[in-house]
Amino acid sequence: MIPLMPSVEFDAALVRKLNQMGPRYTSYPTADRFSAGFGAPQYQAAVARLDAAGGQAPFSLYVHIPFCESLCYYCGCNKIITQDRGKSAEYLRYLGREMALQAAVLGARRKVDQLHFGGGTPTYLSDAQMDGLLAQLRACFDFAPDEEGEFSIEVDPRTVTPARIATLRRQGFNRISLGIQDFVPAVQQAVNRIQSHQQTMEVLQAARDSGFRSISVDLIYGLPLQSVASFGPTLDKVVAARPDRIAVYNYAHMPQLFKAQRLIQAGDLPDPEAKLGMLGLCIERLTAAGYVYIGMDHFALPDDDLARSQRQGRLQRNFQGYSTHAEAPLVALGVSAISAVGNTYAQNEKTLGDYYARLDAGELPIARGITLNDDDLLRRQVISRLMCDFIVDYDRLPLPGGVAPQTYFAAELQRLKVLEDDGLLCAGSRGSRVRMRGRLLIRNICMAFDRYLHDGPQLARYSRTI
Ligand code: SF4
Questions:
Q1: Residue 380 and residue 263 share a domain
Q2: Predicted confidence band at 269 (pLDDT cuts at 50, 70, 90)?
Q3: Which of this chain's residues are annotated to bind [4Fe-4S] cluster (predicted)?
Q4: Helix, strand, coil fractions of the chain, as percent rounded to 5
Q5: Which of 203, 285, 373, 420 has the highest count of CB atoms within 10 angstroms of its CB?
Q6: Which tens digit of pLDDT belongs to each residue from 41-76?
Q7: 408: domain CATH number?
Q8: Whose C-alpha lies nearest to ligand 1, atom 6?
């Protein structure tokens, strides 16, 4: 039994004061810094550099399935709403082509020890389509055995039966993530996502019965018609089901960026104080129920791999949130998907038309990306350690020869001083440690190290802390 230590402190006044727009740092530099000057040649060069540096290390694979049957009004994902199954069949043909091109670049039968299917709705695919796709992947790559690898899939409980869940386990998935958001019918109606408590619990139980190693659920606070009073019962039901991981996302209403959100009545949205109350309630209920705050919306049971990796200093942050696989290169397949290989990020074309056209031309469908310079790599390491460990040790950073951290990060240490005065962290010349009350505001701390924000702030496209 792991003794339960405090993992976060909710200080409403502090969150209220420092609530500001900022990146979520699933990458550094953030995706808005990618440029069209980066393409397939730069990506191939990154793979070659990686191979030259360390041989053929296992990597992580992400597969993006963009289709959904109906539109959730809060959605900010890259998805395609359609009931036309012919579209997914066509997509799978192109995905097969991209896979073959990637396999040729990566070399014969590279080892994959982490696979994630995201979307969209991966379970939009039929059993037969999923079988075909997995067979193609296994023909191209060498998957780790079930007990070693992490093979996860995002599941929309509305699209599956318990029998389908058992099939997914047989197909090789051993981790599952279920979208819930909120159990209150009026809230579900307001966001066009009707999903009963019973339906969700049946799927969750089926995942348990089928032998999934880790079950994760997603909730959202800040949706229309939600209140502190209404969100409590949803949290209680989730806690009673005891998933291994719980992600509680803050809904960011940005209708200027996400068209679907224009279907939400702005007058139905909870005000910032109510959202703050819901955030406080999440912290209180989930930590009281024994969950550890991992960081940035994520909670896990103390014996879950995420919590264990965090205790061992092995946690990583990537496009799916947090990952236990230390710095494995991430190769992403599918429209709009983002790879992270060596010192590069590479994003695929964002529309199906462009994605298909590039593959028709026999090219990797990379549309934009970035090659990180030494300063980017250094800052990425700082931000990653802060996000994952809540601590950064400047002596362990690959600073340019002879330059002291106090000199290199002089401006950053000044910015941290202000946050230290607010009680978020203890900042020293050798490193910084985030205090319990600063953990909810971790992105404010990371922003102090983001050179791009300070070179020319463009914050309108980012969401707020609450
Ligand atoms: S929230 Fe998920 S299921 Fe709903 S439209 Fe967006 S991608 Fe599809």
A1: no
A2: very high
A3: 68, 72, 75
A4: 45, 20, 35
A5: 203
A6: 999 999 999 888 876 678 999 999 999 999 999 999
A7: 1.10.10.920
A8: 75
Over residues 109-114, the mean pLDDT reads 88
Residue whose structure tokens are 């200027």: 256
How far, in Å, is the centroid of ligand 1 from the Cα of 180? Answer: 11
Give me the domain span that covers residue 88. 28-331
**Is 139 found in the same domain as 121?**
yes
Is the per-residue pLDDT at 209 higher than 70?
Answer: yes
Pocket test for ligand 1, best of 82, 88, 121 (most atoms within 8 A of CB): 121
Which of 331, 360, 390 represents a domain boundary (last residue)? 331
**pTM more than 0.85:** yes
- Ligand 1 is surrounded, with C-beta below 6 A, by 68, 71-72, 75, 77, 79, 119-121, 156
Q: What is the pLDDT of residue 55?
A: 63
Distance 333 CA to ligand 1 centre (A): 19
Is a pLDDT exceeding 60 seen at residue 9? yes
- Residue numbers belonging to the annotated binding site: 62, 68, 72, 74-76, 119-121, 154, 181, 193, 218, 252, 338
The DSSP-derived string for 311-376 is: HTT--EEETTEEESSTT--EEEESTT-EEEETTEEEEE-SSHHHHHHHHHTTS--EEEEEE--HHH
Domain end (from 331, 350, 365): 331
Residues 269 and 385 reside in one and the same domain = no
* Ligand 1 centroid from CA 299, angstroms: 22
Burial of 31 (0-12, 13-18, 19+ CB in 10 A): middle
Angle 190-272-290 from CA coordinates, rounded to 5°: 85
- The reply to whether 190 and 291 lie within a common domain is yes
Rounded CA separation 104/102 (Å): 5
CA of 34 to the centre of ligand 1 (A): 25
- What CATH number does residue 147 fall under? 3.80.30.20
For ligand 1, atom 2, the nearest C-alpha belongs to 120
- What's the structural domain count of the chain? 2
- pLDDT of 413 higher than 60: yes
Q: How far is the CA of 153 from the centre of ligand 1 (A)?
A: 14
